[in-house]
Amino acid sequence: MDTIGFDHHDHAACKSGGIETVERYCAAHGLNLTPVRRRVLEILLEEHRALGAYEILDRLREEGHGSQPPVAYRALDFLTKHGFAHKIERLNAFTACSHPGEAHAPVILFCRVCEAVAEGVADPHRGNLERVAAETGFRIERTVTEAEGVCSNCQRNGPA
Length: 160
Ligand SMILES: [Zn+2]
Ligand SMILES: [Zn+2]
Ligand SMILES: [Zn+2]
Description:
The protein is α+β, with helices and mostly antiparallel strands. The chain has helices spanning 11-29, 35-45, 53-62, 69-81, 128-136, 152-156; strands spanning 85-88, 93-96, 105-111, 117-122, 145-149. It has one domain: Arc Repressor Mutant, subunit A (Orthogonal Bundle).
């Protein structure tokens, strides 16, 4: 499992790589990455954090992309539906996907101290959920596993 988001990395490359991957995926699959959808993805990619829809809407409004909540919600719907972003139910917030365009079962780890979010990938054939689903003949289309805790940086910085 590779986890990014808690460790130091070249975030500029991480950000531009995320946008490029999604652009290529949309072009290849005939998806319309409108300016607002692209902008919302960029906002999510700025930091490895979770953002609520209203924070995103505020940013869009400041930038003149329109101030109606449906603008942000529709863009977020598009991004989550195609796996370019994930919704963290627990926080009612969104984060950019670290593996856009790949079929994967995301594991979202969020730090309650610094609010950093990292995404790892679970082996889709090895989990309990998949075993239970297989036993009942259920076909899983999407799972998001969420875990809250303290990241390694915050653990190093003393007790939280
Ligand atoms: Zn990054
Ligand atoms: Zn993902
Ligand atoms: Zn932390």
